[in-house]
Amino acid sequence: MIVVVPLSGGAHRVDEYLQATRLAVSTASIDIDVDLTAGTEVAPRVWALIDTDRNGRISEAEGRTYADALLRSMTLRLDGRPYPVVLVASRFPTREDMAGGSGPIHVQARAAIPAMRAGRHRLFFRNAHELSMSVYLVNALVPIEPGITIAAQRRDPRQTQATITYDVGPRPGSRRS
To answer: For the sheet containing 134-140, what is the strand order?
Structure first.
């Protein structure tokens, strides 16, 4: 008799640093949410990058420094024009949670953009943070703002970069010529 047991939904890779990025487009900003989960084999390396004073915990300053380094490794262009990405918030796990593979780092960031005109727009995003030990996921979220629709998402095979094409409809009360 053979018993088949499905793998747990919480299973993840032990030897890689998973960086899952979600992009939310609106007419005034591009919001970026990143969850970074270190597998148990790479967790000590990731922890050492963040806990620079080696006291076993991540201070606010250390967290900010690491989050800023993550954001500096990102490229964001809208319709060919680069926009700076600024930190909104970050949250870091305990050393024990990261070592066990169950403690993701969460970083929220935003790129302010000029008010979007109606029409088709192209967003290019690239994440080059810790390329040697990482695997990546990148997706656009369904826009919550009325009148914005995602037309297409194209990613490179590693998903370090994505091009998102989206449409912005006319603003309520505006006239079409």
So the answer is: 86-91, 105-112, 29-38, 17-25, 134-140
Residue pair 119/142 in contact (Cβ under 8 Å)? The answer is no
Tokens of 7: 């793998």
Helix-strand-coil split of the chain, %, nearest 5: 15, 40, 45
**CA torsion angle for 124, 125, 128, 131 (degrees, to 10)?**
-100
Beta bridge partners of 135: 18
Which pLDDT score is estimated for 13?
A: 65
Which 3 state secondary structure label does DSSP give 151?
Answer: strand
Whether the pTM exceeds 0.90: the reply is no
Using alpha carbons, select from 24, 121, 126 the residue that is nearest to residue 80: 121
Give percent of the chain with pLDDT exceeding 90: 85
**Residue 50: both structure tokens together:** 């963040």
Q: Which of 109-113, 114-118, 128-132 has the lowest mean pLDDT?
A: 114-118
* Length of the chain counted residue by residue: 177
Task: Please report the DSSP string for 89-150 in residue order.
Answer: EEE---HHHHHTT---EEEEEEEE-PPPPSEEEEEEEEE-TTTTTEEEEEEEPPP-STTEEE
DSSP 56: S
